[in-house]
Amino acid sequence: MGAAPRQQIAAWAAPEQKARFAALAASRGLSQSRLLGLVVDAVLARNPIHRIGEEQPGRAGRGDRVSLRLRAGDGNLLRQRAQARGMKYTTYGAALIRAHLRASPPMPLGELAKLEQSLAAATVIAESLDQIARAVMQERDFELSAIVPAVEGLWQQMRELVKANVLSWEAADGEAS
Predict the structure, then answer these.
(1) Residues 14, 20, 22, 24: is their CA dihedral positive or negative?
(2) 79 and 118 fall within a common domain
(3) 63-86 pLDDT tens trace
């Protein structure tokens, strides 16, 4: 039985790349064709081919890349809603897809940071209220002036967070901003 028929693989390279490749092949005592064949064999050996839908080992922890074609006007709406939430439109689109697939809408990082700040403010308020309660129980003087701005700041942060979420998640088409 004869050798299997062979086919050519060709690639375009800049002149300096071609010269360096030729020098490398010559330094190894190989033709450029043979060196390129060894490169192709090495790449194929290290990168097994998987069919679509087949589990791919080594990809754990890395996100899948997906290209989407949206209907006319949807890209603009996606960008507007993402901008309203302070996100890149690609990140926002990924969040929407993940929320649909997992039935667990994620909170954008900026909004999560505001929520964490609000939690820190609430902690300060709770500690102050605890001090006030102890002072009242011991009939000492206490200072309320620091609590009022903290409560107002917490209220404002929570209001902005809720408003951003309501506008983004519940707005009808064309009302994203």
Answers:
(1) negative
(2) no
(3) 677 888 888 899 999 999 888 888
